[in-house]
Structure formats: C-alpha cells, structure tokens
Design brief:
Blueprint lengths: L1 H19 L14 E4 L5 E3 H5 L4 E6 L4 H17 L5 E6 L5 H8 L7 E4 L4 H5 L7 E5 L5 E6 L7 H12 L7
Parallel strand pairs: 3-4, 4-5
Antiparallel strand pairs: 1-2, 1-5, 3-6, 6-7
Amino acid sequence: MSHHGALLAALLLVTAGCGATQTPVRVGDMAPDARVLDLATGDTVSLIDRYQGGVTLVNIWATWCEPCKEEIPALDSLYRALAPQGFRIAAVSIDTRSSSEVRDWIAPFGVGFDLLQDPSGEIQQIFRTTGVPESFLIDNRGRIMRIVYGAAPWTSVANRRIIEELLAATPKTNE
C-alpha cells in the first residue's frame, strides 16, 4: 500500500507541476491569438490581426450548446446597437462538423457579427476555457477586460455600459 501511495503522490506532483505551467487567462492579460476559419470567406485568419485596435468580444460557442443558442439574439442585438461605434464580435464555433453545416445552423438567426470556426478546438486550450459559451471582452490595446463563463444577458444596461466605456476610450481613426 505504501508503494502505491508513493506512486500516487509522485503522479499528483507531476500532474500539479504540469498544470502550473498552464496558468489561466485572466482579466488584465493580453489576449492570446488563435487562427480560426472565417465562415463567410473560408479564409484562415488570426484573431489579433483581424481585431487589433478595436473593442472585441470573443465568444466561444457550439451548435450543440443550448445556452449558446439562447444568447445568440442578445449578442446580435448588442452588436447591432454598438457596431456603428466600432464594437466587434468574433463568434468562434468549436464544432467539428463542416463549416457549411455550422453556417446552415446559425443562418436562421440572421446575425450580423463575424462567424468563425475552430474545428480543432485549439482555441479552447489557447484561451483555457472551462466550457461553452465563454466570452472574452478585449479592449483596443488587446487586454482582456472581462471574462464571462456561460451565457450572459448581453443587452443588459451593465454589459452595454462596460462596452460603451471601452469604445469611448478607443482612439478614432479616419478611414
């Protein structure tokens, strides 16, 4: 029994040591980058290259996730209200099904925000998610300002105010 106990203790130490290198993504950290498929164009894009310099909500979701489905209308409403001020949403599906199946599934919602996909699920390791949906609000400097675990009331006054404050702090460019 003591041999097994020593072996278990050693295994736990090794496992704990491995986990220590995978620190969670936290508010205030620079947002990590991920390469994902743009469902509108079929191109692989970098989240940092596509969204740097603006206020972006990275929403990690899946078609089989009921809370994800429930929050889609609120996300779209928030996007449509704040997009004219520069707000963007990068909705990244982790579905392993084909991109056309994901597009067909979400089409009835008529969303205006960017639909992306990472069938490898690598974005879950990069952002160190705990499940879906999970959202990361990123400011114009690329810092994570808020992490939301699970579905959120995106049209609430509090959520809208946080995003509006971040948008107000974003320098305007003449394009």
